[in-house]
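Example protein
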Amino acid sequence: MFRYALFDLDGTLTDPGEGITKSIQYSFEWHGIPVEDRKELEVYIGPPLRDEFMIRLKVDEEKADSLAAKFRERYNDVGWKENVLIPGVPEALKTLRRVGFRLALASSKPVTVATRVLRHFDLEQYFDAICCSAPDGSHALKKDIVARALAELQVPEEEKPLAVMVGDRKHDVIGGKANGIATVGLLTGYGSREELTAAGADFIAASPGDMVQWLLV
C-alpha cells in the first residue's frame, strides 16, 4: 500500500473550466486575439499557462508574460470563484488521511490562488504540504513541483515506491515519473484516457473513489 499521495488541483480536485476559459478569453480579447468558441480554450487547462501560450500561439516570452498577466487579472478576482468541486474528492481525501497517508498538493497554479481554492472548499485541512508555482506563475514545471512536494513530505529515497502522483493531464504523469514515483491518471478532468495512457500512467481512475481503491490495494 502507498503512504504518500501528491495531488494536482485543476481537473483533479476541482473543475476550473469556466473560470479559466473565461479568464483566457478576457486576456485574448484584450490582446486582440479572437475567440470563436470558449470551449476550445480548455486545452490550456493543466499545463503552465505562460509556456502553453508560447507553444500554441507562437509568441515570444514578453507577449506570453503579458497574456498571463491579463489572465491573472480576471482569474484572481472572480475566475477562481467559478471552480466547482469534483464529486467524491472530500471523501477520498478524508479516507486517505484516516488510514495514515501524508498528502501534498502539487499544482502549477500560483500558490496564493491554489490555497484560496482549497480553503474555499474546506480541503486545506487534508494536506501536509502545498507546493505550487510562485505568485507570478513562475517556477511552474511539474517535475520541479513534485520534487518539492516529496521533499516537504520528507519522503526518503527508499520510500519513493510508496509515493504516487495523482492528476488529470499528461504533465502530472510526466512530472511524477521524472521523480521516480507511481502515477494515477484521473478521468475527472481534461486529459483523455489516451493522453494519460500514452504518458505512462500506472493506473487510470474514472473517479476519486476508484483512485482510493487502487491506492489501498
In short: The CA atoms of residues 103 and 155 lie 11 Å apart. The chain has two domains: 4-15+83-215, 17-81. Strands lie at 4-7, 14-15, 84-85, 102-110, 129-133, 163-167, 182-186, 203-205.
